[in-house]
Amino acid sequence: MKNLSKAREKRAILRLLLMLLAALPLQAQAPTAEAQAARIDRHYNALHSLSVHFTQKYDGMGLHRQESGILLLKKPGKMRWTYSSPAGKLFFLDGQNAYFYSPGETEIPRVPAKKLDDLRSPLSFLLGHTQLAKELTSLQITPADNGAYTLSGIPKNMEKRISAFSITAGTDGVIQSMRIEETDGAINTFIFSDEQTNAPASDADFVFHAPSGTHIIDGMPPI
Asked: With a threshold of 0.70, does the pTM exceed it?
């Protein structure tokens, strides 16, 4: 009888342990860098347009600057950065050319899209059929806050300008932030929020009209 009692006690303890283990939340297996890149690809490649609030921080060349506004994207190849701080600042990409305007400037630089490598347009890779795993070399992944993950790598053909590049996104593929470190030590950080997928966006929203008293010049914009 004593042995039977001990056996029952062991079985009861085993059942209790199994119940406790079943009650514990299952920890999701961390995705590979390629799997997380594919999540981001799927999310953005399925969209026709996108509106998102951005905050941009720039540190470099003795400058420390923070700006913010609304980014509107429309495929293929169109984007508009409308700054609320500083008010009136604009960056347009109409699919063929990019335009940079800051209030008080009389000259507006225009750059052909094919020659554009401006780091104020970090979402330009989302305007086509994105394949992040192929566009970033030395791809790595690390856990971030709130269940998100950070992908890091170097954009192809930009090795001479960029020393480090990272994207933080949730498991839904929505990008939360980007960090770009240039080889000269300058750092651009973009934080994104309030994303609206397939937001209203007409071609007219991406036609740049030079303000009165300004004229367009061909050349690279200032930092």
From this structure: yes
Query: How crowded is the C-beta side of 45, counted as CA atoms within 13 Å?
Result: 10
pLDDT tens digits for 21-54?
555 444 457 789 999 999 999 998 888 999 999 9
Question: What is the arithmetic mean of pLDDT over 99-127?
Answer: 76
Q: Supply 221's token pair.
A: 């914009």
- Work out the end-to-end distance of the chain between its first and last CA atoms, rounded to an integer number of angstroms: 86
Give the mean pLDDT of the chain. Answer: 84
Peptide bond into 76 cis (omega under 30): yes
- Six-digit token string for 95: 């699919």
Q: What is the DSSP string of the chain?
A: -HHHHHHHHHHHHHHHHHHHHHHSPPPPPPPPHHHHHHHHHHHHHT-SEEEEEEEEEEEETTEEEEEEEEEEEETTTEEEEEEEETEEEEEEE-SSEEEEE-TT-SEEEEEEGGG---TT-TTGGGGS---HHHHEEEEEEEE-GGG-EEEEEEETT-TTTEEEEEEEE-TT--EEEEEEEETTS-EEEEEEEEEEET----GGGG---PPTT-EEEESPPP-
Which structure tokens are listed for 44? 């953005």
CA dihedral 25, 27, 44, 168 (to 10 degrees): 120
pLDDT above 70 as % of the chain: 80
Contact 158, 119 (CB under 8 A): no
